[in-house]
Design goal:
6-stranded antiparallel beta sheet; globular
Amino acid sequence: MSYPEPIYADGKGEISATYRPVSTAPNLMSGNGSATHYLATTESTHGEFGLYRMDMVPKAGGSATHFHRSISESFFILDGTVRIYNGDRWIDATQGDFVYVPQGGLHAFRNDSDASESMLLLFTPGAPREEYFENLAQTAEWSPEERAEFFIKHDTYWTD
């Protein structure tokens, strides 16, 4: 494997870094108090990746088993214990643990503990996950056809 073709051609470099202080308010708050921070969106990375921090309250639950056809998903645990299903068994991932799920890999995650947790989610290549996060709670009110269309649009295929 080799490096990809260059995107930037000028030999001088440019000032283009972004900075997001830890004190920046979350982009999305769920009804239970969990928060999602949009650290690097598909738009800001020109489709290279999406990076999000999820801060889940105690007993927040999580996702059912699913897979993605076009994106990989990685989990890096910042704090607490996150239960991650790796397609075979549930793993209690703790601070510093990393889980990579390639395209097609079955996975799920949960916070069933009495403590808060925080983790980074990395999607590659980038995909418009912000719309997914922002509308996920509403899907319970939609028709089965609307839900199916939404999940297919967002490359999420449930197995449960």
